[in-house]
Design goal:
The chain is of the alpha+beta class and 294 residues long. The chain folds into 2 domains: 111 residues, Probable inorganic polyphosphate/atp-NAD kinase, domain 1 (Rossmann fold, 3-Layer(aba) Sandwich), CATH 3.40.50.10330; 155 residues, Sandwich (Tumour Suppressor Smad4), CATH 2.60.200. It is built from 8 helices and 16 strands. Strand 8 and strand 9 form a beta hairpin.
Length: 294
């Protein structure tokens, strides 16, 4: 029997976690696992709980922010990250193929399939799904300070920020390419999406040792429905506003300081960014169906 620590963020996604706790108690195989359930109270608790865990498997119960905190606590160890997604976006879990249905997510733990995934870093800040500059970072900053959660509120904030957010000038340099020009936002992707299946980088792999840098050049309000459709159907790269670069190390500069984010966790930042990928740096649990496809 293996010990497993569940790190639960009770407020992630604005969702009650009683259904998730019930699923753990009902569906977790008692022959395989002896569970321990801990609840976070403040930022940083999840990282500490993961780092201090004696169990070889630590499961993040929450959204991308909780997953990121737990994952940071596991780096440098041989512990495995599990995920029961119940946040606003759940980008990494959805890339991994982990269901938002708690019963099905617990079943992934029972199946016990493990692999290694890449980890990324921006100016020393780790991220596991995406990092961003520009409009999406500004929306993340507003979303973090909002009292409401969920996709509807995120869309409302995105529309408001779009109407007032100025484009910026960026320069992107990789080992093999260089580009300069205006952009609404720049996303650096380890996983393929922001969350909610909005696949900003449908080509991204968690095991290729590369970062996918997405530049979305200025577009008009009339183009938003088309861009949104391409985003949600995995065809974002077919837009003429879309540029893609792939590299293991990336240097980005912009003309003005402003918002940035790592896995949706926003902060005010300057104008220079160094990004790199750390291949196979984290052990993760995933469904059998995704073993060859991440």
């Amino acid at each position: 029997m293996t010990d497993v620590r569940f790190v639960v963020n009770p407020i992630s996604g604005g969702k009650d976690k009683s259904r998730v706790i019930a699923a753990i108690e009902r569906c977790l195989d008692p022959v395989l696992y002896r569970p321990e359930i801990l609840f976070t109270q403040k930022a940083g608790d999840a990282t500490r709980m993961a780092r201090e865990a004696a169990s070889p498997l630590v499961v993040a119960v929450g959204g991308d922010g909780t997953v990121s905190e737990v994952a940071r606590g596991l780096l440098g160890s041989d512990k495995t990250l599990g995920v029961i997604p119940c946040g606003s976006g759940d980008g990494l879990a959805l890339h991994l193929g982990v269901s938002r249905n708690p019963d099905k997510a617990v079943q992934v733990l029972n199946e016990g399939f493990r692999t290694r995934m890449d980890v990324a870093r921006m100016n020393g800040n780790y991220f596991f799904c995406t990092a961003g500059l520009g409009l999406d970072a500004s929306v993340s900053l507003d979303f973090a300070s909002s009292e409401s959660r969920g996709l509807a509120n995120y869309i409302t904030l995105a529309w408001r920020d779009w109407q007032r957010h100025p484009e910026d000038q960026y320069t992107i340099q990789t080992e093999n390419e260089s580009w300069s020009g205006p952009a609404v936002f720049v996303t650096v992707a380890n996983a393929n999406q922001w969350g909610n299946r909005a696949r900003i980088a449908p080509m991204a792999s968690l095991q290729d040792g590369l970062l996918d840098v997405i530049v979305v050049r200025p577009f008009s309000t009339m183009e938003i429905p088309d861009l949104a459709t391409r985003l949600m159907t995995g065809r974002a790269q077919s837009s003429r506003r879309y540029l893609h670069f792939s590299a293991s190390r990336v240097h980005i500069t912009r003309t003005r300081p402003g918002a940035a984010h790592c896995d949706g966790d926003p902060f005010e930042a300057g104008t220079e960014f160094e990004l790199e990928v750390l291949p196979a740096a984290l052990k993760v649990m995933l469904p059998r169906s995704r073993m060859e496809k991440i």
